[in-house]
Automatic annotation (TrEMBL), chains A, B:
Entries under PANTHER family matching the protein: DIPHOSPHOMEVALONATE DECARBOXYLASE (PTHR10977:SF3)
Lineage, uppermost ranks: Eukaryota, Fungi, Dikarya, Ascomycota, Pezizomycotina
Name this protein carries in UniProt: Diphosphomevalonate decarboxylase
Organism: Neohortaea acidophila
Annotated InterPro entries: GHMP_kinase_C_sf, Mev_decarb, Mev_diP_decarb, MVD-like_N, Mvd1_C, Ribosomal_Su5_D2-typ_SF, Ribsml_uS5_D2-typ_fold_subgr
Keyword match Nucleotidyltransferase: no
Cytoplasm as UniProt keyword: no
Length: 387, 387
């Protein structure tokens, strides 16, 4: 009995958190955005999607398993990714007659996130980036990360930014076919390696409208949104690229917080209004303002995706000032138990001023855990296979 | 000993709640707004400022007492009102040599609100309208409400809309001296008398930035605000006037809720962001949406001023549908004990669907009382004097 011919490849892919936000599609089918966006890729040591793609002549159908659950693979978004990747594989096979005919085999994809899918941590971005990257490894495609981003984008818009590390921009693009709506590296993680992120994960609350539906409601009904997309964001894209090139945290902080608030303002201006920020989020914002005010400069910047979790960016030098402050308030929550969390000295609680106490109490009630992480690199090929 | 010559006049003045919001000044000194606004004057049977203005040769200084507390009368805003009213009185005295020389006497103003000043119920609007109206009565000025509105506006912008009953618009005006920035009647209360308002008063919470400072922060820093002021509001002003003329509640509801959300979106887009809506407000919004959805039409409209209180407008015919629904949720709070509140049949709690229960619980925790009221008339002269 011959051993079965199974081909497989595995990857880790990172989460990214935008600092100039993607919200709104000009083409919902191709996931073409109304405006560009910029994100920070977070370290896979902390948050990652781990995906194995395999194919074999014996497989009878494409399949996708996510965190142990069989998922529907027939959706248009996943199918678009598989179709494009198979097409690229066929080009490889056409040029090399010895290359095995993988494009015709069925795919088995198994994926696991090391963070709760429902936590609102851009799991679909990491997930689709990992899916595309794993299959590209399996197919031995020579395709560049930017070209792969065009494919991942069709799975989940923000996934295109998870195919590279460091600081990544997603070009809005002008063409109808989306060929120029791709992600590119603004700077690698090594350019500004001391960027840290503290994620304040909000207690599970019934989530408001999902982002796919929500953003199109905004496009259809907000009277402010087009102004954001056409006037506000383009200027910020340039300014944010410059802030990253210059390692100018003051500018980075001002742009990220303003853009987060601007995006949530457009959500509120949607009909019916969409609320992702809750009282806990608001408290986190106030506390960030208080930290900055106490230090008389921007030591931290907050940003919120389509959910109540605060992502607080700061530089390694300010870890005590920022993470130490939050450790004093929510040091009893899970997330501090690692080596890095333990090394952070909690601030003295006695420093809390009047207004802070109210916010601190809200945070204490509304936060379920924290995640300590920072800027990281792009997808890594791994030899640990999930199937 | 001759009896002392004391002149006095008293008035009640109403609260108004805008449905197209005033936010932002193009001239902070004259309280000239960046955009027009429209409000509903609420019944003085429920909410009112009661003010007595008196003057006498023996008075040695102008004084103002609000709810039993001496207030500073030397502020530029109050002084502007007194100066203009005295100027008009001088014109009266110049034309009638028998008219007593009141303009030269010091003024004693005593004012009482029948609602908590801190409740965020536009107390300054009612207060300044009552102050101006009481002095105008005292001085026997022939001035029209619209001309008085020009004076009251300098005390508190939205006060200009409390000098008339029913449905009142405040013209943005174009002139630098503010002479055309006045309030006018869109329609009297009798035109559409069945407009009701249920106010859900939020439990006292530390208020965010006050409106005077907040609106100028928005003007200075929001990237969306000018678009609101120049593009969004002007169209809504026309549409809202039409909705009122046509007694078209569906249009009235759509415009009020959208404009409230648009205003709060601009607050969120302010740097630093301003939050007036909290989780209780958000719950009230969701419940209003659910009521409308259940009835397949807009039976209610919500609007929020610079605070977390929801003002829910509805028509008398829908009192059971709207007020009865909220009575089922917060019927144990103060505010239902009057004749009208008792007559409202609370809805069956069993009708609550899943999402409603979460919102209902938030409302139960976050609401301290309700106020049942409706559209009402303009300031009334009264003979009950406070001094």
């Amino acid at each position: 009995m011959a051993a079965e011919e199974i081909h497989r490849a595995s990857t880790h892919a990172p989460v990214n958190i935008a600092v100039i936000k993607y919200w709104g599609k000009r083409d919902p089918k191709l996931n073409l955005p109304t405006n560009g966006s910029i994100s920070v890729t977070l370290s896979q040591d902390d948050l990652r999607s781990h995906t194995t793609a395999s194919c074999a002549p014996s497989f009878t159908g494409d399949s996708l398993t996510l965190n142990g659950q069989a998922e529907d693979i027939s959706g248009a978004r996943t199918q678009a990714c598989l179709r494009e990747l198979r097409q690229l594989r066929r080009e490889v096979e056409a040029q090399d007659s010895h290359a095995p005919k993988l494009a015709d085999m069925k795919l088995k994809i198994v994926s696991e996130n090391n963070f709760p899918t429902a936590a609102g941590l851009a799991s679909s971005a990491a997930g689709f980036a990992a899916l595309v990257r794993a299959i590209a490894f399996l197919y031995q495609l020579p395709t560049s990360p930017t070209d792969l981003s065009r494919i991942a984008r069709q799975g989940s818009g923000s996934a295109c930014r998870s195919l590279q590390g460091g600081y990544v921009a997603w070009n809005k693009g002008e063409k109808d076919d989306g060929s120029d709506s791709v992600a590119y590296e603004v700077a690698p993680a090594s350019h500004w390696p001391d960027m840290r992120a503290l994620i304040l994960v909000a207690s599970s609350d019934k989530k408001d409208v999902g982002s796919t539906a929500g953003m199109q409601q905004t496009v259809a009904s907000s009277t402010l949104f087009q102004h954001r997309a056409n006037e506000v964001v383009p200027k910020r894209m340039h300014a944010m690229e410059k802030a990253i090139h210059d390692r100018d945290f003051e500018a980075f902080a001002a742009l990220s917080t303003k853009d987060s608030n601007n995006f949530h303002a457009c959500c509120l201006d949607t009909d019916p209004p969409i609320f992702y920020l809750n009282d806990t989020s608001r408290a986190a914002i106030r506390l960030c303002e208080m930290i900055n005010s106490r230090h008389d400069r921007s030591v931290c910047a907050y940003t919120f995706d389509a959910g109540p979790n605060a992502v607080v960016y700061y530089l390694a030098n300010d870890e005590e000032a920022v993470a130490g402050y939050f450790k004093a308030l929510v040091g009893d929550k899970p997330g501090w138990e690692g080596k890095r969390g333990q090394a952070i000295q909690a601030a003295q609680k006695s420093v809390l001023a009047g207004g802070e106490e109210v916010a601190a109490k809200l945070l204490q009630t509304g936060i379920s855990r924290v995640i300590l992480t920072g800027v990281g690199d792009g997808p890594r090929r791994v030899e640990e296979h999930l199937c």
